[in-house]
Amino acid sequence: MIPLERLLADRLRAVVAAIAAVTVLSGLGQLLLPGMVLDLLGAESTPTTRHFFAIVGMFMAVVGGVTLQALLTEPTPAFIVLWCAVQKLGAFLAVTVGVLRDLFSWVAMAVALFDLLTAVLATMVWQRLRAPAGRHQQARVTA
Question: What's the predicted TM-score (pTM) here?
């Protein structure tokens, strides 16, 4: 099955793949324009914060890219999808702590909640990938 057919056949996989692609783009945006993103999040923008925010953006682009590639590959390495979920959960926790410490405005909670949702969806894909073939096919049909 070609990658596009795999995505069309499994909506959950397609959603997580689309989020991975958006993560690549948003990570590149954060890498190239960290000051603008910090301003949107209501955070302090200094040379130091912009530098470290750009580094985070680079890692976002890498994790999004490897996740997207994994979801388009047969067989999909389940451990990559698991680490995507872990990264998204970590991002949710880190941004939430930043909001609670008044480092980011409450607008940033939208980003945090989206990361939490992505962690849940990626975990669901990971669980499907780990399921025996028969159970995986059955889960895909009911989803």
Answer: 0.85
